[in-house]
Every structure is written in C-alpha cells, then in structure tokens.
Design a protein that fits this description.
The protein has about 450 residues and is an alpha/beta fold. Helices cover about 40% and strands about 20% of the residues.
C-alpha cells in the first residue's frame, strides 16, 4: 500500500479523516460512521444539498487508499481554489456561512438528520458562494438529546456577528484569537446593554451564557428530551438573529477608486498598461491582488477566468467586492489581509491551519499602489517587501509611487520623514535581487511607474 499523509487539522472526529495521496486530496469514512453515512446517502440529503450547491460535491470510491482496518469508503472532494479561514472573511462572508449552516441544519432535520458540529471551518468560499465542505458532519437525529452543536454555533457564528453589529467595528482578530469560538461569558460582557432588548440576542447569547454556566456546575444531571419542534424553533430563532445583524461601516480606503479616477486618466492608463502586459506572461492559472481595494484589477483577471485572491485590510472594500463576486459568480476570493501582519499558522503544533503565506503561491502578483503604504505607512524596508511578493507568487506587476506624490506627502504630514532610503534607485536595487525587469511604463502624467517583473530563475 502506497504511503499517504494525514491532514494535520483532521484529527478530532473518529468518523473519518482527510488525507493526501499521489498529489490528491481524499477523505476516508471509517466504519464507525457507516450507519450515519448510509443514512445521509439513502435519505437523498447528500444529493439534494450538492445539487443546490450547498454541499461540496464528492466522488464515492470503494477503494481503501490508506490500508486502514477502520476503512468503510473513500471520498474524493471537488478541489477548492484557495483555502481560507474565518478570521480572513468580511462580516458578510461570516454571515452567509452562518445562514448556510442553518439552512443545511433545517434540511437535515427534515430528513431525520442533524449537524453534529457548527463551526465556520466547515465552510469555504467556492465558485463565488459559500459552500459546506464537511461531509461527515451529519448524523441521525435523536430526539432524546439536545443539539450538541448549539453552543458552538452561538460562540463561533452568532456572537462574533452580534459584536460587529453592535460595535460597528470589524473584529476579525477575535476569530483568530478564539478559533473555537468566543466564550459566551466573555463575549456577553462586551455586548452593550441595549442588545438585551433584542429577543433572539438575549435568548441565544445573554441567557445562554447564564444557562451554560449553570450547566457547568451541574455536570451529570440528567436532562429531559429535546423535541423536534423545540429544535426547529431554536434554528428558526437563530436564523432570525443572524439575518437581523448588519455591518456597513466605511474604513480607511473605502472609495479609493472613486478618488483615483478623478486624477486625470491615471486609473484608465494603469488599466490599459496592465491589460497590455498580461498576454506577454506565461499561462496564468492563479493570481493575487495585493491591496485590492474594491477589486478593479481583480475583475480584470476574472474576465480572463483567472482565479484571483483579492486581499486588502479595508473591510468595507472587501465587503463590496464579496457582494459583487457572489452576484456575478466571479472567480475571485475577497479576503481581509493586513500584509504587514498576514495570518499566522495556528492550531496544534502550529500546523493545523497553515499561515496565509504557506497557503498561497500564485502565478501572478499584482501590487498596485501598495508599496508606499508598506514602506512608509508601516516602515517596512524594500528588502522585506520584495521577499513578501516573492513568497506570494511568481511574476510581478508592481507600482512605484515617488516620494513627491501627493498621497505620500499627505502620509508624511502625520509622521516624521525618516525615509531617506525611499527612492526609485533603492526600489530597483532591492527588487533586482529576486526579479528582472521585463517592462516598465510611466502612468500618464502621474509620475508613478509600473514594472513588469519575472523571477530570475524563470
């Protein structure tokens, strides 16, 4: 039997595990999950959810690829373009993932099944919409038991959404700090008093926190039956709560393109140059747009059917792009990423969930009007910036903004000018260590320059 590599995040559930073999990704279903898996198939729930594009399609294989005595069957899931994590999602993405989880819970209940866990890590953005990826999360419904995933849903979905709704602040770092969900007792203390006047918020967060605390003091106490009607009411109430939460706050660079388009024909000329250069590159199968804002140049790549990560730290801009991606089914993955502090590796041994830089390596990196924000806004030297771009991908289209540019001068009004090394010559020298310049072009009368670069080994 050929060797396989178990995925480092797939260790919690005895029902099965995800593994790699021969450059393919598979999921093993263990014998212990046989009855629940057969119920999932025989009920028609699996086929229905796949057809509705709510559950990731998987091919069923009757081959034991691991040689494990626990093996029942093997699944080969449809490949995902990029793997993302909840702390990289905007509010709307987390909200859609929550509603998807509740929709699936309702459909499962209608066929005598239930979700045994309810974590955002069971959901990914795929082909422009959120989709459930954990086929082994379903089990047969037992009306004598409460919904075991209820508290997890409240802590991992409902509470983060409520906190962002009431604070009007993007709080994604909390999801990084609490990947299993924000503890109810802690999150409840952060909610404003007025949140208690919203019935569903009060029931599922405030009251739930109190009840959970009491239950922890009463371990071993037998609890009564949990009727299907009661469960359905809880799911419906959760859905009402999630639906009611909104976040529309504008951030630092919201509306950047509206402002940029007023600078003569700067934006149009930049778009024309990038469009002209793209055909000269080798086949581009993936790309990342660093500092994408609302994704104008990500859409340029999407029009060529290039799967593109559009990453920016501006929550409002990424939210706008996500709604457009969802509506038009664009091959774009909008993400909240601060490139001065990208998502780290987390979990057991720091291998359970890889860092952003370990997950992403594309054929093309777009870095337009972003270098000066890193170099002057964040005090990051050119040498570190070029290393970042090289980790993100192969070919590079990068924009250099001279120091006399009005945007840089505005930035320098807020801080002391210590940036004697910020020159075009220093920029060229630093980038030449990893890249060779193929083409360069001034962007109209802006004074800004675009560079097309390829790595030396190419």
């Amino acid at each position: 039997m050929a060797t396989f590599q178990r995925h480092p995040s797939s260790y919690r559930d005895p029902s099965g595990f995800v593994f790699y073999k021969d450059n393919g990704l598979y999921r093993q279903v263990n014998k212990i999950y046989r009855d629940d898996f057969n119920a999932l198939l025989e009920s028609g729930l699996f086929d229905r959810l796949v057809k509705q594009e709510k559950l990731l399609h998987c091919e069923l294989l009757r081959e034991n690829l691991t040689g494990s005595p626990d093996w029942f069957c093997t699944l080969k899931p449809e490949p995902l373009r990029f793997v993302t994590y909840p702390h990289e999602w905007c509010f709307a993405m987390l909200k859609d993932a929550a509603l998807l989880t509740l929709d699936i819970m309702e459909e499962a209940r209608a066929t005598g099944m239930i979700l045994k866990d309810a974590t955002p890590y069971n959901v990914q953005l795929h082909k422009g919409r959120m989709i459930f990826i954990d086929t082994l999360s379903f089990e047969k419904y037992d009306p004598s038991k409460p919904w075991i995933a209820y508290k997890q849903f409240c802590e991992a979905f409902l509470l983060p959404l409520a906190l962002m709704h009431f604070s009007r602040l993007p709080l994604q770092p909390l999801l990084l700090s609490y990947p299993e969900g924000i503890p109810l007792a802690l999150g409840r203390s952060w909610l404003p008093w007025k949140s208690k006047w919203q019935l569903n918020t009060y029931l599922h967060l405030h009251l739930n926190a109190v009840v959970t605390k009491e239950q922890q003091r009463s371990i071993g106490v037998e609890r009564g039956a949990f009727s299907a009607k009661k469960l359905d009411n809880i799911v419906r109430s959760l859905k009402e709560a999630v639906t009611s939460y909104t976040y529309n706050g504008k951030d630092t660079w919201s509306g950047y393109y509206n402002e940029a388009s007023q600078r003569d024909d700067y934006l149009a000329q930049k778009k024309e140059i990038v469009t002209r250069w793209l055909p000269s590159l080798p086949a581009i199968c993936s790309a990342i747009d660093v500092g994408a804002n609302e994704g104008l140049f990500s859409e340029l790549l999407a029009q060529r059917n290039v799967p593109t990560i559009a990453a920016d730290f501006d929550h409002f801009s990424i939210s706008q792009l996500y709604e457009k991606t969802k509506r038009d089914r664009l091959p774009i993955t909008p993400l909240l990423i601060d490139f001065s502090n990208p998502s780290p590796a987390i979990g057991v041994n720091n291998t359970e969930r890889p860092s952003f830089l370990d997950r992403v390596h594309t054929d093309l990196v777009l870095a337009l009007a972003v270098v000066h924000h890193l170099a002057i806004g964040k005090n990051i030297p050119f040498e570190s910036i070029v290393q970042l771009f090289r980790k993100l991908g192969e070919n590079l289209i990068v924009e250099f903004v001279p120091k006399n540019d009005e945007k840089i001068q505005y930035m320098l009004q807020q801080k002391k000018d210590i940036y004697t090394a910020y020159t075009e010559e220093a920029f060229r020298t630093a980038f030449s260590v990893h890249y060779r310049i193929v083409e360069e072009a001034l962007i109209g009368q802006s004074g800004r320059t675009l560079f097309l670069m390829t790595p030396h080994e190419a």
